[in-house]
Amino acid sequence: MSSRPYALPQSASLPPLSRMLVSVALALAAWEDRRRTRSSLARLDGHLLNDIGLGADRAALECAKPFWRD
């Protein structure tokens, strides 16, 4: 999995509704990243999985996770 830092900007000047909307957008971006990464992982063959240090069983477990789970 990639470890992209999705975090709320440290700007106190944003109104509460804007902060909430930014938080929702960041959560959606993280979910999409997980979905895309797991989809790519599912397409790798055994040789490539070995290259990145994952076994087929571990990769299958990761791919089976829903997008909202880290």
From TrEMBL:
InterPro entries named in the record: YjiS-like (IPR009506)
Name this polypeptide is given: DUF1127 domain-containing protein
Top-rank taxon, per record: Bacteria
Annotated source species: Paragemmobacter straminiformis
Residue ranges occupied by any YjiS-like domain in the UniProt entry: 25-54
Pfam family name, one: YjiS-like
